[in-house]
Design goal:
- The longest helix has 19 residues.
- By secondary structure, the chain is mainly alpha-helical.
- The chain has a domain of 100 residues: Serine Threonine Protein Phosphatase 5, Tetratricopeptide repeat (Alpha Horseshoe).
């Protein structure tokens, strides 16, 4: 099957997206892994790099650190072999890898990778290019992890300013609003945080099945808890936990959402239900 070009990779990713939309997550990942191996064996390195980048994101959201990192490393190895270093494709893979490093608590390493991405962008792109929006959003995520909430908020705001001038970026915009809310909550600006979470929730309502919505729900739960609305907080944590379990099973993010739900229920005076959710959190941890 010589000549696997852009049309074929688009078909592969379309089928993958369809499987994700149906909730066939593990099968979708298996399909991509098979296609990545096939592309590599038949010499279609560019297509394989694209697929490995998709796999990195899938395993990151699923909470599978080793698999996420392995997909990023596989893409970077192909980029080096194909002498594509310094290209936009290289920057994209570094960006994805840095995002995974942030998600798994290695923010310092992530910021170093983002610096490499920014250097490539500065060399290759105009300053208002849409890809800077993703970079700023992800840099802000890492800054959050090292507790620099003020600078993180500035980067989220810069990202939103660019996203506002783009079309078909509802998921990215919703995620950025939710992330900005986290910064505002850390600075005790709860009213503005609530406004951003409301915008995020409205956008995610038009994106059924988007896994990034789970993080927004957990953040909304945290805000309601800070406001003393414990029953409402429990409701948001419950929705996050149920979504995560449906998509990815009882992973660490599911356990955390269950634990937070239990804490909110306890504060709301619902001890029996709190114990049930704490038990679900404990069982999920034991299975890891």
């Amino acid at each position: 099957m010589k000549g696997m070009g852009q049309m074929d990779i688009e078909k592969i990713l379309l089928k993958y997206d369809e499987m994700i939309a149906k909730g066939e997550l593990r099968a979708a990942a298996g399909y991509l892994e098979k296609k990545a191996a096939q592309c590599g064996e038949e010499g279609y390195s560019t297509s394989a790099i694209t697929i490995f980048n998709e796999l990195e994101g899938f395993w990151r959201v699923a909470g599978e650190k080793e698999k996420s990192y392995a997909a990023a490393e596989a893409a970077l190895a192909l980029i080096a072999t194909c002498k594509m270093e310094g290209s936009i494709g290289h920057a994209t893979t570094l960006l994805n890898y840095a995002t995974a490093k942030t998600a798994f608590g290695e923010a310092k390493e992530a910021l170093e990778l983002y610096d490499r991405v920014e250097k490539i962008y500065d060399w290759q792109l105009p300053e208002d290019d849409y890809r800077y929006a993703g970079l700023y959003n992800n840099m802000a995520q890492s800054l959050l992890r090292v507790n620099d909430v003020k600078t993180a908020g500035e980067y989220f705001t810069k990202s939103l300013a660019l996203l506002e001038n783009m079309k078909k970026v509802e998921s990215e915009t919703a995620t950025c609003h939710a992330n900005l809310a986290i910064c505002l909550m850390a600075q005790k600006n709860l009213e503005e945080a609530g406004e951003n979470l409301k915008k995020s929730e409205e956008l995610f309502a038009s994106l059924p099945g988007d896994p990034h919505a789970d993080s927004m729900l957990a953040t909304r739960g945290q805000l309601e808890y800070m406001l003393g609305n414990y029953a409402e907080a429990a409701g948001y944590y419950r929705r996050a936990a149920e979504n995560i379990e449906k998509r990815f099973g009882q992973n660490p993010y599911y356990s955390r959402a269950c634990r937070n739900c239990a804490k909110a229920l306890e504060a709301a005076g619902n001890k029996e239900e709190a114990e049930r959710w704490q038990h679900l959190a404990d069982i999920a941890l034991e299975r890891r």
